[in-house]
Amino acid sequence: MKTIPELLCERELPELLIMRDGTPVTRDNWPARRAELLDILQQELYGVTPAPCPVEGKIIQTDERYCAGKVRHDTVDLTLHTPYGDHTFPVQLFRPKANPNAPVFLHICFRPDFPDRYSPIEEITDHGFAFAMFDYNTVATDDGDFTNGLGGLYVGDRKRRPHEWGKLGMWAYAASRVLDWLETIDGIDAKKVTVTGHSRLGKTALWCAAQDERFFCGISNDSGCGGAAIERGKVGERTERITEVFPFWFCPRYKDYSGHAELLPFDHHFIVACVAPRYCYIASAEEDLWADPASEYLSAAAGSAAYELLGLPGVLPVCETMPTAPAEFHDGTIGYHVRKGLHYYGREDWLRQMAFLEARV
Ligand code: GTR
User: Fold this and answer.
1) Is the pTM higher than 0.85?
2) Which domains does the chain have, with CATH numbers?
3) With contact defined as beta carbons under 8 Å apart, do 98 and 128 qualify?
């Protein structure tokens, strides 16, 4: 059986710890390298993220009796005052009354429902976490239509430029704006906010945490292609397919690499590295071969180099060969698990992710 270093070597990854001009990366110039990595990821994959805009949150409804009265639930209208006009979308916030300084999960959701099969709110708040969520479609629809929400304000019906942001970037931007608002309210610890999402929203959460250093942790659940998974040598979904079916998730430039992963000036361990020195968590499902658990694990392993440069353990314990489900790596700054079963954001994922965070908040 091949060792992890052998598997990584086969993927022929671009160098993480060498600056564009060839200078080796040290602890001192790491911030400059991180800025380069973010620039590459913006130019080539997700598109350029605009500057933060002012936000305003208005609580429009409060339910003090949520979950048998254990939780205060607020419905909030969050308005982003962009240079091109305002956009308002609903955010739900659930604060456990038993913990007045609660760490928070900010879940970028597929649906407006609460609870939801991907959002076991009572379980999460019973663990002492607050839970904030928004439905990604209310920020910008999940399609090629750029005339609504943030798409309508920043793009409209013209053709996007090659490096202009796509929908994943817009959803990630919205999550950062939710954090702007969370920083202004009581009953939570805004320094302990973990952004999370599943699948396309796992890609989004990881990109959000990579860019926004205020997040305590970024979780990618089964994010696969365009998210945590290493693209070179990946099985299942690949650049050619994802840019064919979902070109609007990324900047138009990304499609140029269709069928040519070897030419990408990045690979996905760059995204994990941008989260350093903060916590990052990658979750995989054994039967989710479309996402490719092995390629997700390899980006945790390769991204660990940035953490080690900064004097922190990456993914720990070090695994000699590819982990098989069920397996959990909770001793480092990057958490990883691979569970049995299919593509899903289930109770087991949440329990493992909460256990990782509970030991650190
Ligand atoms: C699939 C897509 C994946 C993943 C998934 C999801 O159709 O190919 O990249 O994002 O959707 O988000 O559910």
Assistant:
1) yes
2) 4-50+98-358 (3.40.50.1820)
3) yes
